[in-house]
Design brief:
It is built from 16 helices and 14 strands. The protein is an alpha/beta fold. The protein has 2 domains: about 150 residues, 2-Layer Sandwich (Nucleotidyltransferase, domain 5), CATH 3.30.420.40; about 170 residues, ATPase, nucleotide binding domain (Nucleotidyltransferase, domain 5), CATH 3.30.420.40. It has an 8-stranded mixed β-sheet, with helices on both faces. The relative contact order is 0.12. Bound molecules: adenosine-5'-diphosphate (ADP), acetylphosphate and magnesium ion (MG).
């Protein structure tokens, strides 16, 4: 019998770092011990929230924390000095550090991070300069603060390795596409893997027969068509910019629009570094569009409230999102030939935005989706909840997705394999 091991699952977003602590032994599913988050890195002061068990223990500002590295160091210090968490009292207690890496290129499964994988991940940052940086900075921080931990990368793109060739191919010069690896990759895959498993279990069907249309609506938003438990299509593309609009991202626009939005499209943006080049076009479309540009805030809860009070800009932002979402759902409905086990809402907006869910489902009534207003208004705390009307043709569900839990689950399953993988 092996002793219990500690898995740290790290989810570095563009503006936050979320870390969940799990204990696992060979026989068991990982058990969550604590969750800690530092949010608001791009809108200081950063804020820390800490939950252990079912208790909310801390919620306070941490003005000294300014970067992803700072955040990790602060989080590690906090966890190891919490006497209520004796399982993790020293950095060496961590066996595995799991990292959510948004862009994994051709990787279709998790990889232990050695010098070679680290270098490959750095190269991939060229394809996703705004997304992989935070995760790599934290890999460095773990390497220096927790030298005995095994670092493993879990890719947001891996779940989409099953997308068929015609769907992932852009209509561009195939030689250049091959050389520069230009294709649809898709993201939010850890979330979609979690959703597919949790929903299949909840509605009592085998995962490999689950046909779902899933919506991960957070500060980045995407849709995914899941057939037989696998990704058949998704709305994000080469980078997380494509598809649905988000908090600060435009989503799909006519590609030539960028030249009308700024005359500096091809120039380097001031946020470029010596190692990492970001064009003004990337900067503008990723950081200066979406809800922020349309309404002045990135908080969809606030946007919903203001729309109810009659704010026209906020109402338009909601209408735009609903319009794009129903377009994807309709397309995916056809891809699944109408054989749909459920439409699933997830991510911060999907889980908390009752008004948005209702607006989307109402527009989909011709396909057989119908909302149960009472259930939609108060979906409760279960991981998966049905919010569709009884007797409707298709189910509608809300899933509290958890990317850290998905990493921990996969890590525990492959623990021995990962330990034996060569590391430099
Ligand atoms: N009551 C609410 N109604 C609608 N959206 C909400 C509500 N509360 C929070 N949100 C949205 O959830 C988003 C965060 O979602 P989350 O999935 O946690 O984000 P991230 O992509 O950063 O992981 C916030 O940016 C906010 O727009
Ligand atoms: C891939 C992506 O957009 O991630 P997030 O929603 O965390 O920004
Ligand atoms: Mg997210």
């Amino acid at each position: 019998m092996t002793m219990s091991q500690i898995i740290l699952a790290v989810n570095a977003g563009s503006s936050s770092v979320k870390v969940s602590v799990f204990a696992t032994s060979e026989q068991d599913q990982p058990k969550q011990l604590a969750v800690i988050q530092i949010a608001g890195l791009t809108a200081p002061p950063a804020k820390l929230t800490y939950n252990r068990g079912d208790e909310q223990i801390k919620n306070r500002e941490v003005p000294d924390v300014k970067s992803a590295q700072d955040a990790y160091e602060h989080i590690l210090q906090h966890l190891t000095s919490d006497s209520g968490l004796p399982e993790l009292s020293h950095a060496d207690d961590i066996t595995f550090a799991c990292h959510r890496v948004v862009h994994g290129g051709d990787y279709d499964k998790p990889a232990r991070i050695d010098k070679e994988t680290y270098h490959r991940l750095e190269e991939l940052s060229d394809l996703a300069p705004l997304h992989n940086g935070g995760a790599l900075a934290i890999v460095e921080a773990v390497h220096s603060k927790c030298p005995n931990a095994i670092n493993v990368a879990f890719f947001d793109s891996a779940f989409h390795a099953s997308i068929p060739t015609a769907t992932r191919t852009y209509a561009i010069d195939p030689t250049i596409a091959e050389r520069n690896k230009l294709r649809k990759y898709g993201f939010h895959g850890l979330s979609y893997a979690f959703i597919a498993r949790a929903v299949a279990e909840s509605i009592n069907i085998p995962l490999d027969s689950a046909n779902l249309i899933a919506l991960h609506l957070g500060s980045g938003a995407s849709a995914c068509c899941i057939r037989g438990g696998k990704s058949l299509d998704t709305s994000m593309g080469l980078t997380p910019l494509a598809g649905l609009p988000g908090a600060t991202r435009s989503g799909d626009v006519d590609p030539s629009l960028i030249f009308h939005l700024t005359s500096d499209a091809g120039k380097l943006s001031p946020s470029s570094t010596k190692e990492l080049h970001i064009t003004t076009a990337e900067e503008v479309l990723n950081k200066q569009c979406g809800w922020k540009a349309m309404t002045g805030t990135t908080d969809f809860g606030d946007i919903s409230k203001r729309a109810e009070e009659g704010d026209e800009k906020c109402q338009l932002a909601i209408d735009v999102l609903v319009d794009r979402i129903v377009g994807y759902v309709a397309g995916y409905y056809v891809k699944l030939q109408g054989e749909v086990d459920g439409l699933v809402f997830a991510g911060g907006i999907g889980e908390k935005g009752a008004g948005l869910r209702k607006a989307v489902v109402n527009r989909l009534s011709c396909l057989g989706f119908e909302i149960d207003e009472a259930a939609n208004g108060k979906p409760g705390d279960d991981t998966v909840v049905e919010i569709g009307a009884k007797g409707a043709k298709h189910r509608v569900l809300v899933c509290q997705t958890d990317e850290q839990a998905e990493m921990a689950r996969q890590c525990a399953l492959q623990a021995e394999e990962l330990k034996n993988e060569k590391s430099a």
